[in-house]
Amino acid sequence: MIARRKLLTGGLAGGAGLILSGCDRVVQIPAARKILFAGEDMQRGLHRALMARNALAPEFTAAQRSPFFRPNGTRDPGTDAYRALQAGRFADWRLQVGGLVTRPLSLSLSDLGAMPQRAQITRHDCVEGWSAIAKWQGPQLGTVLRAAGLRDAARYIVFTCADLYGGEPYYESIDLIDAFHPQTILAWALNDRFLPVMNGAPVRLRVERQLGYKHAKYLMQVRAVASLDGIGKGQGGYWEDNVDYDWYAGI
User: Fold this and answer.
1) Membrane-spanning residues where (predicted)?
2) What's the domain range around 92?
């Protein structure tokens, strides 16, 4: 694990230019979308019936890691606000934790590093069909939510990001089962180094039982809500709202 005291002094830079990965390009083609999601409801229904939601995703050895972890989605938010944070090595970045909580939090990168850490080597599966194995490190999301104190009405956790799609921040959501899953972490390290910009610096979500588009990058806000009705167009995530992706992307 990376020493916590190095959180604000490490090299947190890299990547440039907002371009779409293959994962995003392919879904712009209607025929490709139809093929990608054909039979999806039946497959995921079977998955849910056969596997417990709290089961662990497979973990791997260091020797099994992929030589390169390609980016999915945005490679660099490219906004003035994000560039300013990057220039300061994210010392001024804060993760806002709010919504239906009793103790709203504003967490720095060093705050997250001071929490108990989880390191895991897991496989990232993109909806396009590629996968890669990498090591991730960060506190469990459940640790952060317990510190904030969820209210009884909370049912979902919504993530708002620094990258923009159509001029609005990217967003995603998960339910409390995935939020408190032991492998759901707020990762600030990839393969024992600080996250590169193209992979979501300074912090990204890792929700290992779901496909890659659920792993929100460039996190800025974590919010507990009672319903997804007021989030975007009501489906709980950018791709769910705009490209008919499933909200639950279990693998």
Assistant:
1) none
2) 4-243
Sequence-ordered list of residues with C-beta below 8 angstroms from that of 16, at least 6 positions apart, any chain: 75, 76, 78, 197
- Residue 249 is assigned to a structural domain of this protein: no
Whole-angstrom CA distances from 235 to 227, 232, 245 are 10, 7, 9
Q: Per-residue pLDDT averaged across 187-191, rounded?
A: 98
Pairing of strands 189-190, 131-138: antiparallel
The answer as to whether 250 is a domain residue is no
pLDDT tens-digit profile of 118-153?
999 999 999 888 999 999 999 999 999 999 999 999
Answer for the pair 184, 141: CB distance below 8 angstroms, yes or no.
yes
**DSSP character for 150?**
B
Structure-block tokens of residue 125? 């599966």
pLDDT over threshold 90, residue 251: no
